[in-house]
Design a protein that fits this description.
The protein is α/β, with parallel strands linked by helices and 574 residues long. 35% of the residues lie in helices and 16% in strands. The chain has four domains: 2-215, Rossmann fold; 219-316, Rossmann fold (3-Layer(aba) Sandwich), CATH 3.40.50; 344-508, Rossmann fold; 518-574, Alpha-Beta Plaits (2-Layer Sandwich).
């Protein structure tokens, strides 16, 4: 049966059809929907793990048991999972193991735009790269075949445009696949003696995979009308080339992006006058082509910064009109902003008002960095706020102890903030950590986490007690505040910063967008009392604006949180 599917949904369908039994992931845009979609198939066990490292290690355990397994993450999540990734390359697998990584060229929802193809090369793990939803299903099933044939985990590289675009797929029936577990310490126990013997196996596997890449249809040559030039490309870049040029020029489409073929590329290059490599971010294909003696045109035309597009490909190659439509009108900018009623707003207002240095973290609360709040000084990666505040205060010899905090979300704290807090307690750092607990994983679309009391399927699950956990690692001072109560926030933050010992403040209020959250009636402005002081504008709420010199509240956006009313000295907002 044919259906229209998102790329991520198609990967999930491929997992189902290939007989995958176990899925463990951590949500991260643009990969999240893979795991959400596969969880709808009752034949597949699916879970959210606390972080990507745990997800990959869990998926490996399922593979070891003989079941086809999967874990998914975004590109920065692969950094977290890199430790087991490199060693699982040595052990190989029992049941097939796929690791999906979704890159975010253009940084639509990320703190960097690293190119995950380098991980495939560095870890010596094959990587497949679909260019649409149909290939997402096909390549997912092929990845399991490769995994079990070559005794290797397989990386499946998605990207924002493939993950979140739709195309036609054809569904097939599920095929069950289970292998027997046989104890094999020499293969699976990576102590030095065994690891030394496994390394030559990995190198031999790489050679066999290169031979596979030469002949398998995953890498295909598409004929063209003109031999003036030919393209070597992959993924969404392939779609741009085809949309601009159609069948005018030959194309070598690489579906296996590592290892890449050698003779197939050389032979293709001999059939055209010049070879153009079209790829996003780094010159990964370009570098390989040049290393095997093929002269190509690549990054001198296409930047290694940001996304490509049909129109950019056309422009760089001297084509006046691309097949895709080009928007001529300027689109008004829409800066990111915390939602109306967001529980983080009052906390960040309090921190900014008190001129406190804030080590920030990854989540929707990162928006506390933008105007008018401007309350965050640093954002690096998940968990870095907690470790960073420790280093910041220790390096300053106590001078910043009462003036600096870390802010981290509940899900991010479970992901990688706990170890930083252990470090604070263990090394007696006079640092204050604020956990903004909005009862959900907000930025990636409201996924459950170990602090919410529900699992991926929405069933009841063990709920981590943050207060008890913080005390258990050695933090004696643990306070809970309501971020809608500005006076309470201000008082507790000042009290904890004044004490000469580590402390944790839990800012607890559910996300305003959660379905079960009941909102108060929207506030109204008494224009006679409004003095146009614009104090209410300092919290950056999208429901508040100024019209004809007076504050105005959009009733369709306002949740009645009352934070703005606490700022008005003239009682004009009620």
């Amino acid at each position: 049966m044919k259906k229209l599917m998102l790329g991520n949904e198609a990967v999930a369908r491929g997992l189902y059809e290939a007989g995958c039994s176990f899925v463990s992931s951590y949500p991260g845009t643009p990969s999240t929907e893979i795991t959400e979609a596969v969880a709808k198939y009752n034949e597949v066990y699916a879970e959210w793990a606390p972080n990507e490292k745990v997800a990959l290690e869990s998926a490996f355990g399922a593979s070891l048991a003989g079941k086809r397994s999967f874990c998914g993450m975004k590109h920065v999540g692969l950094n977290v999972a890199a430790d087991p990734l490199f060693t699982i390359s040595y052990t190989g697998v029992n049941g097939g193991l796929i690791i999906a990584v979704a890159d975010d060229a253009g940084m639509h929802s990320s703190q960097n735009e690293q190119d995950s193809r380098h991980y495939a090369k560095a870890s010596k793990i094959p990587m497949l790269e679909p260019s649409d939803s149909a290939e997402a299903i096909e390549f997912t099933k092929k990845a399991y075949e490769i995994s079990e044939k070559f005794d290797t985990p397989v990386l499946l590289k998605m990207c924002t445009r493939v993950s979140h675009s739709q195309s036609i797929v054809e569904e097939s029936e599920r095929v069950e696949s289970v292998k027997e577990y046989v104890k094999d310490g020499a293969k699976y126990i990576m102590m030095p003696g065994n690891a030394k013997r496994r390394h030559p196996v990995v190198e031999a596997r790489a050679e066999a995979l290169t031979a596979f890449a030469e002949n398998d249809s995953v890498n295909r040559i598409e004929a063209g009308e003109s031999r003036e030039m030919g393209f070597v490309t992959s993924s969404t870049s392939y779609q741009y080339v085809k949309e601009v040029f159609g069948d005018k020029y030959p194309v070598l489409k690489l579906g296996m992006i590592w290892p890449m073929p050698v003779e197939k590329i050389r032979n293709f290059a001999e059939t055209v006058n010049k070879v153009v490599v079209v790829e996003e971010l780094d010159g990964f294909i370009e570098e390989h082509c040049r290393s095997i003696g093929v002269d190509v045109i690549g990054k001198e035309l296409f930047s290694n910064i940001g996304e490509l597009s049909q129109n950019l490909v056309a422009e760089k190659l001297g084509v006046e009109t691309a097949c895709g439509n080009k928007i001529s009108d300027t689109i008004p900018p829409r800066p990111p902003v915390m939602c109306a009623g967001c529980p983080h707003r009052g906390l960040f207002y309090t921190l900014a008002k008190n001129k406190i240095t804030v080590m920030g973290d990854i989540g929707c609360y990162t928006l506390g960095a933008v105007a008018p709040l401007g309350a965050i000084d640093s954002v690096i990666c998940m968990g870095a706020s907690v470790s960073g505040v420790h280093g910041f205060n220790k390096a300053n010899g106590g001078a910043t102890d009462g003036k600096t905090v870390a802010v981290i979300g509940d899900s991010t704290f479970m992901h990688s903030g706990i170890t930083g807090l252990v470090n604070i307690a263990y090394n007696n750092s006079n640092s204050t950590v604020i956990i903004v607990d909005n009862s959900i994983t907000g930025m990636t679309g409201h996924q459950q986490n170990p602090t919410t009391g529900m699992n991926l399927k929405g069933d009841p699950a063990s709920k981590i007690d943050l207060e008890s956990l913080c005390r258990a690692v050695g933090i004696n001072r643990v306070r809970v505040v309501d971020p809608y109560d500005l006076k309470q926030c201000d008082a507790v933050i000042k009290e904890e910063l004044a004490f000469d010992e580590p402390s944790v403040i839990i800012s607890r209020r559910p996300c305003a967008l959660l379905k079960y959250v009941k909102h108060n009636a929207p506030l109204k402005v008494d224009s006679d009392k409004c003095k146009s002081c614009k104090m209410c504008m300092k919290i950056g709420c999208p429901a508040i604006s100024m019209t004809d010199g007076k504050a105005k509240i959009d009733a369709t956006l306002c949740t009645g949180c009352g934070v703005c009313g606490q700022l008005c000295k003239f009682d004009a907002l009620n």
